[in-house]
Each structure stands twice: as structure tokens, then as C-alpha cells.
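Task card 7
Instruction: Convert sequence to C-alpha cells.
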Amino acid sequence: MIATSAAGVLGLITSREALAAGPSPRRAPLRILFLGGTGFIGPHMVRTALDRGHKITLFTRGRQGTELFPEAERLVGDRDGKLDALKGKSWDVVIDNSGYVPSHVQQSAELLKGSVGHYFYTSTIDAYRDFHTAGITESYPLATLPPGTPHDPQNYYGPLKALCEAEVVKAYPSNHTIVRPGWVSGPGDNNHLFTYWVLRVERGGEILAPGTPNDPFQTIDARDLGAFVIASIEERRLGAFNAVGPVITFGEMLNGVKSVMTTPSTFTWVDADFLRAEKVRPYFGMPLWWPPRNDYQDPGMRGGLNGGIGAFNLDGAKARAAGLKHRPLTDMARDTLTWYRGAFSDWPEQRRPGLSAVREQELLAKWRSRGGG
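Output:
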């Protein structure tokens, strides 16, 4: 496999894009501590912050992305109690991208309480109780976890994120920001969910499209998320924000991707119940898709929530009013393809999410034999 470092991803962030958060700050540069910052979303935040003149410290385990950001201060430790490198230092704000269990967030929040003035926590929309209604706002109930449940992010990712939020609020009641990103896509996405559709449409031919063209679709580009995060700490925007993309239809998404490709393609829309009967999983088996129904569950879903009417239809009005901006989906598709070609040009098909070419053809043939298509 040809795999590039996150440095290749950052090559797609031009100076113009890095400044999407707004004009360069006239105030003194902020001293920003990142807990994490070398995964998928973190590098976009760090690069934007550096390009805007801020002073950056990265606290990581030192296992990945060590070649990134040589101009940043590096501290090595672990969220699991190995925080000594943070002692005796101070920053204006901490951006916590790596807090997955409440004990880790509690430890860092308490340790930094006297040395950091603003705690910015990256949560998730999976922190909500469910997706059983469309247009979920920041006031929607959060998930809970029964007492005694193991704090295992693999199985309880969303509820644990909700508990992490509570630790932040407890330690920083009047100077915290919580951002709840939706499904994040774009260059650097090692989950390859949106990437599946970019590659599939690029290949062309008859494409199995899930559900109906009117099913909702919602994703946010990691670069837009990064710009919003840095602008939020500069402007000291407090409270919780759904950092989600605009709600469009699945058909609009696919046609948007198609518009930047040159290979001819057609979409055959296949019924959700047929896909369920064929054991095609939503979200991973059909990337970034879930039919807008509360009765369509995936027993194999771990960590996050099962879908529902609101799974790809959350309300992002508060974040947009606070300055969140979205680049065109066509730009995200084009840049994702450019990134993927440089990073994973020989990545085996069986390791990607979505349908293999063989399985897709089997399903299309079976669908047509039943009178579909």
C-alpha cells in the first residue's frame, strides 16, 4: 500500500483556504494547546491556526504525524494518566480532540484548570440520545450510560462523548466550547466513506444507489470544520455547536460528484428494504447513507448510534450564524480524489468500505430480476 503522511493532506490547504476562518487576527497570537492534532481533523485545525499566526503546542503519544508542523512545540505523554509534560505550563486555550472517555477528560480538565483560560472540546453528534427526529438542535437530550457500564469507546462511543462533555462543563462552567461535528469528510479521511462515492462515480458505469434520490445527505468538510474551530477560539464563542454540513439529498450528492468526473455513469436506485434483506449495512455497507426511518436498525452497529429520521438531517443554524462556512461539495469531491490518488493508489478494494465491484453487480442483477431498476 502506498500511504502518505498527513503532510500530503495539508498540501491541499492553500493559504486562501486556511484563512477561511476570516481576516487574520489583529489581537496578539493565541497560545493554543492541542490534545491530539495529528489524526484526521486535527491537522486541518493546526495548519489553519499556524497560518493565522498562533503559537501551537501539540500533546500526543508521539506515534504518528511526528513529521508534521516542525514549528510547533511538541509534548509527549498519554491521556491515561501520563500528563506530566503539561505541568507548569500555560496556554490561552486547549483544543481537546482526543478525549474519548470521561476519566481522561476529567484528568486533563482538572490539571489545566489553573493554566488554560478556555476549554474547547471536540465531541460528536453521536452524543445525542437518538436520531429519531429531524432538525436536532444543540438542546436535544444527550445519550446516557447505565451505571456500571464499561467505558469502552468501541461499543459506547456516543454516550461516552456525552459524559466527556459533562466533565468539561463541570471544570469550565463559564468558559467552555463544545463542537459536535457530524459526518466529517474530505482529504485525509481514513474512513473513506465519502471517498467510496468519489471513487465509484469516477469508475463510472451503472452504480447502485441506495434508497431513493430524496433520502437526506449531510457531511462537513474537515477543512471547513478546522476553520470554524479556530475562528471560534479567536472570537471566544462559548456553548455547544452542531458543526454539520448543509442538508441536501443523496441524489444531489451523487450528481454533484458526477459533475466533476469525466467517466459516464448512471444511478440505479435500490430499495432500502431490499438492501436490508440482502444484509447490506447502512452507513458502512452503503457509505454515509441511512434511510430516513426510525425502524431501520443495524444490529451490527457499534459505538455510534443507529440511524433514524434525523441521522443526516441535523440543524446547523447556530454554527452557521456563528460563522461556519461550507465549500461546494464539488470542491470536496475533486480534492478528495486528488488526495486519494496520491495517498492510496494501490489500496486493495476489499479494505475499503462499501460494496466490492463483484457484490455490486450481484445486487444489481438480483434487483433487476425482481422488477427493480
